[in-house]
C-alpha cells in the first residue's frame, strides 16, 4: 500500500478508504498525496489537497460536503472565467461521465460568445463580419472569435475550494512542498493553471480560494493510460522543449532597462503635447496648433519621475475640495485665478472653493440656476452626459455629480498651469485638448448638453467653424449653454460678439430658448437648442453655413480636419439620433432603440443580443471577481479607464461604485462609442500606439480586455506599457485579460518596474493579470530627447 507521511488520525483514515477504492482511482489519489500530479492526458494542475478533498473528503471527514458548499456554508472567493470560448474544449462528453452534482447547465443567454459545440467553421467565421465601422469610417470586419468578450456563464464555472496555507502547521506546509516539488518539475507550463498572489495579503484575498476553471469534469475524466505516477521520457523531453520555446517567445529571457524621461516638462510630461521638436517646426500657431497633439515618431519608453514628496491622493469626495500640494506643486493658477475661487494654497493642501470665472460663489448654485431657467434640461434625467469646453479646474463637472450628471471636461495645456491635472487629482474627469484645427475625438450627436463658461473660444470667426464642431457633437434636440460677457455686458466688443453669435446661431437653426441671469454670481447665460430634424435647414434663404456633402462621415473624428458645414440630421425611426434616449437611469441597461437583430454585433450575434450578453458578462465578472475577488479596496479607487471598451458593459457594471470610467474605443476596433454614450456613459477614441492626452499619475485603475495582443501587431508593447506606467498612479491597479503569451510578457514588464503582482491566472491559451504600481523610479536619466 501507500505509507502516509504522517501517522495521524486523518492519514490513517485515508489508508482505510484506499483499501476500498477502485484500481482506476488508486493512481489518482496517490498522485494527490504527492502534490496533485494527475493523468498526463488530463492537462490540468490542481493542488493535491483540493483533489483529495473532492474524492474522499466526505468519507474521512475533510472539509464540508458538496451540499454544505451549495448551501453557502463554505466561504470562498470566485474569479470569473474569461477564456475565449473558441479555445475551450468541448466538455459535453466529460460531463456525462461526471457525477450529477458536478454537471453545470448551460446558460447561453449569458455567454458573450457561443460554446465550443456551436462554433462556426473557419470559413463561416471569416465570412461573419460585424457591421460596425472603426473610428476612421472603415469596416473592421471582426469575427466572433476576434471580438474579445470572453468567458462562460456563472452556471458553468467550477467551484473548487482549497485549504488555506494558514490552516496548516509549518511541518505540514514543508511536507506538502516536498511532495509537490518532484511532480511540479514535469508539469506542462504552457497549459498549466496558476493563481499567484503577492506577498501582501489582504483579508478578502485570504479566504478559501476558488480556482476559476470552467472544466471541472475534465479533471475527473478517466485516463486511458496506465503509467502510474511516473512520467514518460518522451513527455518530459517534449514538455521541456515546449517550455523553453514558450519562455523565449513570451519574453521571459528579455531584460528591461528603464530610465527617467529627460523632458523640460519633468513630472508633468505628456509626450504628444510636449513634443518640443515638432512644435518648433510648426508654420503657424494662429489656430492653437501648438496646443494640439504632435506625437513622437517612436513612443517613449522612459518613465516620468514623481514629484518630490508625492502622497497617496485624498479620497473622493473630500478630494473635490482639497488635494495634496506635493502631488501637483503648482501655484501660478492660484495666484492668477485665486480671486475667482478657482484654487487657493493652504499649508500642505490646495483648496478648491468650488468657484469659477462665471460662478465665483459656487458651481452648485450656478447649475441650479440653469435648471430653474429651463426645467426641460432636467439634470440627471433627460440630460445625463455633457461636454464642458474650457473647463478650468472642472468645478462645474465636479459638482454635476451631485445632480447625477457625467461631464466630459477639457482644456488645453497652456498658461493656466496644470488646470486639467488639478481636475483629475480632485477625482473629476477631464482631458487635455483644444479646439484648434481638428475634430475632437468624439462621435457625432452624442452629448445631451454642451456648456461653455467664459471658455475663451472665438465661436463666431471663420464661418463659425468651431461652433459647427459643437453642432456635430450635440445630440439633436440638445442644448448649448453659453455663459460669457457678451450675453450680459454692453461693452462695444461684447455687443459685436453678441450680434455675430446671434446671426450665426440663427443660420445654424439653433433656437435661443432662454436668456437669463444668475443674480448671486452676477452673470448671464443664453441657452440654445439644436433642431430635431432637417426642416429648418431646407427652408433657409441662404445655404450658409452649407450642409456637409453626402460623402462626409460625421462620426470620423481621429485626426480629421474641421469643416465649416452642417451634417444633415438622421431620418427614419430606427436611425441613431432620430429620437431622444431613454431617461436616466433606464438608458443604462436598455438596449438602444437603433440596435436590433438586423445588424451583426461585435461578437457575432445579432447586435441586440450581443449588447445584452456583453452587459450580463461584465456584471458577473465585476461582481464576482473585481469587486469581491481581487482584494481591491474600491474606496481608494475613483478615476477608472477601460482601455478597450466595446459596449460600455464594464463601466455600466461599476455603477454602484463611487467611480467614473473613461471608456476608450481604440481607432482600429469596431466603432461602438455611440452606444456607450447612448446608455448614459462617456468616452473617446484613441490610438494606444500613441500617448493619451492626460497628465501623469491620473488614473487609479486601468482595465484592458484583449487589447495588448492586438496592439502587438501594430506597435511595440514596451512603449505602450511605459504609457500605462505614466498614466497610472502609484498604488494604482492594472487588470489585463488577454492570451497567456501576452499576459506573460506583460507580467515580465511589470516585474521589471518592481510592480507588485497581485494575481496571475492562466488556463489554456487565456490569462488574467492584476498588478499594482509602486513608487519605484530608476536613478538614471535618459539622453537628451
The portion of residues forming beta strands comes to: 5-15%
Question: Mean pLDDT score, rounded?
Answer: 77
Largest sheet: 8 strands, mixed
The rough form would be described as globular
Q: Number of DSSP helices?
A: 25
Intertermini distance: 71 Å
Classify the secondary structure makeup into a structural class. alpha/beta
> Architecture of the domain at 586-773, according to CATH?
3-Layer(aba) Sandwich
| CATH fold-level name of the domain at 586-773 | Rossmann fold
User: What is the level 1 CATH name of the domain at 586-773?
Assistant: Alpha Beta
Physical arrangement of strands within the biggest beta sheet: 2-19-20-18-17-14-15-16
Give the radius of gyration: 29 Å
Residue share in helix: 25-40%
Any low-confidence stretches, pLDDT <50, length ≥5? 1-130, 135-229
Beta-strand segment tally: 20
Going by CATH, the homologous superfamily of the domain at 586-773 would be Vaccinia Virus protein VP39
